[in-house]
Amino acid sequence: MTVSSNGHKMGSIDFDDLNYEHKRYRAMPAYAQSKLANLLFTSELQQKLTDAGSPVIATAAHPGFAATNLLRIDDKKRVLKAVADAVTSVVGQREEIGALPTLYAAVTDIPGNSYAGPSGFMEQRGTPELVGRSAKARDTAAARRLWEVSETLTGVTFPLAALKNV
Q: The pTM is what?
């Protein structure tokens, strides 16, 4: 089970600089890239599990807009903090409710490579259900490439690949 975000929709994968070693680090683009990478990872992991004949499934979820400290704003910025708190109270949901899509994706009988999120307006809040993902998050070639680059960067290979030929 992988946790992503609606932020994946704003993401793009820079295969030449995945770790932001050659460009200026900016939090939101890095976050969006990581959440897109999470969905691509889930997709490729499911493909590898299927190819290996494994009954294990890989799923993903996002919490919607959960009222956590992710959008923490310095108390010195009182006006901005007040606006953020007001928006969070109207659009957001309690963090316990934000955890439900993750639980849903982990324990519900759903197909591999499924993506769960809140059922409400713009997937910001509501009961868990299967949701869609951006076209970039459905790009199987990008998922495969990201997997290969990740194996190179980490020095770790998929352990079930050898089972295919047994």
A: 0.87
Reported residue count of the chain is: 166
pLDDT digits (tens, 9 = 90+) for 84-98: 777 777 778 888 899
Sheet containing strand 60-61, edge to edge, reads 2-3, 60-61, 115-118, 128-130
Q: Classify domain 2-165 at the CATH superfamily level.
A: NAD(P)-binding Rossmann-like Domain (3.40.50.720)
31 is catalytic: yes
Helix or strand holding residue 79 (H, E): helix 78-91
Distance of alpha carbon 102 from alpha carbon 144, whole angstroms: 24
What's the longest Cα–Cα distance across the chain? 63
Helices (H), 108-159: 140-154
Q: Which of 20, 25, 31, 115 is catalytic?
A: 31
